[in-house]
Amino acid sequence: MCAGGNKLRALEFLLAHVKPGDTVLAVGGDGSTHVLATVVLAQRLGARTLAMRWPHEMNETARLVESRADEMADDVRRARGPLRAVLRGWLASRRTHAASTTWWIPPGGASPLGMLGAVNAGLELTAQVARGELPAPAHVVLPLGTGGTAGGLALGFAIAGLDTQVIGVRVVPRIMANGWRVRRLAHRCARLIERTTGSSLPRVARRSICVVHRFYGGAYGRPLGTAQEVRREFERATGVLLDETYGAKAFAAAMQLAQTTDAATVYWLTFDARCVSEQSVAPVPRP
Question: Residues 202-224: pLDDT tens digits?
Fold first, then answer.
């Protein structure tokens, strides 16, 4: 899963009803993988795109993604911080037009609808365990940003009866990434499935989600020295270069955990948007 990483799973649902001529509004920080992936896919559906962003610390990967998003989006607007960006984006999405619809895509795609993609991912992993392709993991370690992937995986495991703890390695401020918020997202997603299917689902237990804070680094978008070291080791072993501020931090946490337990641990590689930013992607002509 590369072109946009884990965001594709959310966007499969969030963009399902977008029609040519609609407007898709994506919100995220400068250099946001989510914003770029949303812009690229929405334009392929023939939609007009608006990116609402805020500044933060940048690195080479983030600057590459930001440049590509600026090039691709029909309109780019900036706010001083995430709260202002979210508010301005939400208000802009309320301004509907008779001939088209404006679709609000939340930061990171972290909504009950968008999380269905991560629920599916949890069920897919459970099916792999059932087929004997890997042992049942005691832990799944991944970066924790807006929480949609972590909450969706935890819900998928709960639905399948898999006793696996999701360990989210925080890469954003604590107000956005915390256990309470991830569990609440999982609960809201479960309610959406129940309303849609009429079935009753188990809830994600408190112990099923653990948030690790010590790899944050003090600011969103700021690389961490420890993570840089394991990033180079990962590249030598696999040929895959982890992004500095998401994947590398989570892998550093996974390596540390693996040294303290013999239980099976899965590192969940969410990728980023470098491959999208490096591709020559032509927008779909407007009708």
Answer: 999 999 999 999 999 888 888 88
Averaged confidence pLDDT in the chain? 89
d(CA 18, CA 103): 8
Spatial CB neighbours of 154, under 8 Å, sequence gap ≥ 6: 122, 166, 182, 183, 186, 204, 208, 209
Contact 242, 220 (CB under 8 A): no
Starting from the edge strand earliest in sequence, which strands make up the sheet with 265-267, in order? 209-212, 165-170, 139-144, 265-267
To 5 degrees, how large is the angle CA 17–CA 105–CA 142? 115
Could you report the per-residue pLDDT of 57-111, keeping only the tens digit for each? 887 778 888 888 889 999 999 888 888 888 888 787 776 555 578 899 989 999 9
Q: Which domains does the chain have, with CATH numbers?
A: 7-108 (3.40.50.1100), 116-267 (3.40.50.1100)
If you search the block for the tokens 């088209």, which residue do you land on? 100
Per the structure block, which two tokens stand in for 70? 């600026």
